[in-house]
């Protein structure tokens, strides 16, 4: 398996499980309807676990453009690899979102609230204040990336071994993502990953979902720009302190 394929597959599993739990909780008539925030944050954390286990040995399991960019900014990942990794992450995220829709198609048809249908694919703020929403995504991603840097020295070995989330082991990352969701996720839904939000948002726009809400493109920049800035700040602080 190539790193490109691994990033596609790992991100696919991330979104299949992460988007799947949102569908299970918010769509009408599922066995998990109204399961609540604990269910959502726990499954998203375990989605990261699955993605890292699948992709880690082959790509380092970035699964997130903010991780790839943050590592590159810190001089720990080859900039020439960033674009292929990000492209693979978007492909995987879009495929994952499509299969969530396919899996829960009957429940999408039963659900009347278009905003709930959109929530399966992408995030939206609890209180719409773009400055605050941007700040939330910056801080959430900052915590994620600084934890990544702290778990490993993130050095690329002489053998050329890829370094990323896979070098940390899946369990520590799972707990970090879970903690971010529980503590910092209530304001924006903690995208903390541009591919996780924008890729499925595009799929939402393309799919023929009856009664769906608009795609909220006016907000879509927040879960893209915020995580990238947060990753950059984490990289800068880590390099400065080390």
Describe the structure.
69% of the residues lie in helices and 0% in strands. By secondary structure, the chain is mostly helical. The protein has a single domain (3-241), classed as Glycerol uptake facilitator protein (Up-down Bundle). Helix 3 (65-73) runs parallel beside helix 11 (222-241) and helix 9 (194-206) packs antiparallel against helix 11 (222-241). The protein is globular and about 55 Å long. Mean pLDDT is 93; it is low at 153-158.
Task: Annotate the secondary structure layout.
Elements: H1 3-26, H2 37-59, H3 65-73, H4 79-103, H5 105-110, H6 114-119, H7 130-151, H8 170-184, H9 194-206, H10 217-220, H11 222-241
Summarize the model shown.
69% of the residues lie in helices and 0% in strands. With 242 residues, it is mostly helical.
Number of E-type strands: 0
The level of helicity is 55-70%
Spatial shape: globular
What is the terminal separation in angstroms?
A: 34 Å
Stretches with pLDDT under 50, minimum 5 residues: 153-158
Secondary-structure element sequence? HHHHHHHHHHH
By CATH, the architecture is named: Up-down Bundle
Q: Quaternary arrangement of the chains shown?
A: single chain
- Give the amount of beta strand, in percent: under 5%
Q: Average pLDDT, to the nearest integer?
A: 93
* Tally of separate helices: 11
How many distinct domains? Answer: 1
CATH fold-level topology? Glycerol uptake facilitator protein
CATH class: Mainly Alpha
Structural class: mainly alpha
